[in-house]
């Protein structure tokens, strides 16, 4: 089965899809699918290299020149390339599955609301109705899709995550984790959606002794400067650190040296950084804006309302736990990722969804 995957950008600074889509196409290749990846903004980073090493062609030229496919899988919404893909599928009479990648979540719809409302009625609604199916990464995202009146099949398949070497497998890291200051890590885009303003307020209320907060990620539209000013005003400059985006081994090391991961987000359809932290054996604090209620079921973290008060309560609880307890929580999270979020399992489920879509059209 030849499947075209289309994505706006492979630049990791653009967010989770630049990581999750390459992981998906590699898993699909292993599952016996013949994927081809097209992107409007190519990047020569580690993700592109990993795709090519897996034998998946990567293109950025004219879509129509790529030939015919059994199915098209488009990732994202609203952009000209998404509309172009919908038009290509219609002209070629090729079934198309769409992964909104969080762009139909309530917070996302209200961000630049009027521009999106206009696009919705001009083309986006019709483009979605013309799709053979939609793909959601969590049940909550599927529910939000259905609330929009889109009466087409929705497949719920999470993003896959690879398990790196855990800190517990590195004795030198374990010894560093037990020393002060202990480290809480945020690793994602530095964007208002991610809730860092709330985290600053929560941290200022708790001021956990012997802890530091490390914020890692690409800055969007100068938001980092605003946050740095808030940190200074709150008197937290001695325990807060901002770093540019990390990839590859540097990113893996950041997870290994963290005692706690925090994503204080307002909205996520998945939140791949949460999965990556758990896969690295790090317990997590995140909010109900992300679909990670399993943190409570597995006792691998905290899942609280996106308010400074609730974040402060979770932070106070987490930072009073001893190192061994946090490591045990992280170990349970890692096993959860191994069991339910393996790339191999996700690739198999997605391949099955493709077979179902094509079967229904014949």
Structure explained in plain terms:
- The protein has 362 residues and is an alpha/beta fold.
- Helices cover 45% and strands 17% of the residues.
- The protein contains 15 helices and 13 strands.
- The mean pLDDT is 92.
**What topology, given as strand order, has the largest sheet?**
3-2-1-4-5-6-7
The helix content, as a percent range, equals 40-55%
* Poorly predicted parts: none
**Main beta-sheet strand count, sense and barrel state:** 7 strands, parallel
Using brief descriptors, characterize the structure shown.
single chain, 362 residues, alpha/beta, seven-stranded parallel sheet, six-stranded parallel sheet, 15 helices, 45% helix
Layout: helices, strands, pairs:
Blueprint: E1 2-9, H1 17-30, E2 34-41, H2 46-53, E3 58-59, E4 71-75, H3 80-92, E5 96-99, H4 106-110, H5 113-129, E6 133-136, H6 139-147, E7 154-156, H7 171-177, E8 182-187, H8 196-206, E9 211-216, H9 223-233, E10 240-243, H10 248-256, E11 260-263, H11 272-279, E12 284-287, H12 294-297, E13 301-304, H13 308-319, H14 323-340, H15 343-360
Parallel strand pairs: 1-2, 1-4, 2-3, 4-5, 5-6, 6-7, 8-9, 8-11, 9-10, 11-12, 12-13
Helix pairs in contact: 1-2, 1-15, 8-13, 11-14
């Amino acid at each position: 089965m030849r499947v075209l995957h289309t994505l706006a950008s492979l630049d990791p600074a653009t967010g989770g899809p630049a990581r999750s889509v390459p992981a998906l196409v590699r898993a699909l290749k292993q599952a016996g699918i013949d994927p081809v990846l097209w992107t409007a903004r190519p990047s020569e980073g580690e993700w592109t290299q990993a795709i090519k090493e897996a034998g998946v062609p990567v293109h950025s030229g004219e879509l129509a020149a790529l030939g015919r496919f059994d199915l098209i899988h488009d990732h994202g919404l609203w952009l000209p390339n998404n509309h172009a893909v919908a038009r290509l599928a219609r002209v070629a009479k090729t079934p198309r599955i769409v992964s909104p990648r969080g762009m139909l979540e309530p917070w996302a719809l209200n961000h630049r609301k009027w521009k999106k409302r206009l696009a919705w009625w001009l083309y986006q609604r019709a483009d979605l109705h013309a799709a053979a199916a939609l793909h959601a990464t969590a049940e909550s995202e599927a529910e939000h899709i259905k609330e929009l009146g889109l009466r087409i099949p929705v497949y719920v398949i999470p993003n896959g995550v690879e398990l790196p070497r855990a800190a517990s497998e590195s004795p030198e890291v374990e010894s560093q984790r037990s020393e002060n200051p202990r480290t809480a890590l945020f690793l994602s885009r530095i964007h208002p959606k991610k809730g860092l303003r709330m985290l600053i307020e929560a941290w200022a209320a708790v001021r956990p002794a012997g802890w530091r907060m490390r914020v890692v990620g690409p800055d969007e539209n100068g938001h980092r400067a605003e946050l740095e000013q808030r940190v200074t005003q709150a008197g937290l400059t001695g325990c807060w650190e901002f770093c540019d985006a990390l990839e590859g081994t540097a990113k893996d090391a950041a997870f290994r040296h963290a005692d706690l991961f925090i994503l204080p987000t307002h909205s996520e359809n998945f939140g791949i950084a949460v999965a990556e932290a758990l896969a690295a054996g790090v317990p997590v604090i995140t909010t109900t804006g992300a679909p990670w209620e399993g943190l409570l079921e597995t006792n691998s973290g905290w899942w609280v309302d996106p308010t400074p008060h609730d974040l402060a309560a979770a932070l106070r609880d987490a930072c009073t736990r001893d190192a061994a307890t946090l490591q045990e929580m992280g170990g349970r999270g890692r096993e959860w990722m191994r069991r339910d979020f393996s790339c191999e399992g996700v690739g198999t489920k997605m391949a099955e969804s493709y077979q179902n879509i094509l079967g229904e059209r014949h």
